[in-house]
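Predict the 3D structure for this chain.
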Amino acid sequence: MKNYTWTVNKLLILDEVKEKDFVVTAICKVVCTEEVDGKEYSAKKLASSIFQPEEKEGFIPYSDLTEEQVVGWIKSSLGTEGVESIEKSLASQIDTKINPPVVPVNKDLPW
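Done. Predicted structure below.
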């Protein structure tokens, strides 16, 4: 079974606009792991989202943000199809590591 972990690597902010710190870019690393026959396989990819600096209802001060909230923002920004695309790409990378494709080789002719 494949496991996906979304970890925020970096937040870029507009410092004290309207006396608030607005997150305008969030970058995260997505890691997929799977254990098969006692061996762990992994693949990773970066994902990012850009946000508009606007004060909405429920605004959360920068110092009160949690990684879970920001990952939620990123996934929401990417949409269901974007999240699925990233996770399918990582799953495919792992499947290729587990079952590498057979690659034909060029051999000298036998005559």
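The chain has one domain: 3-97.
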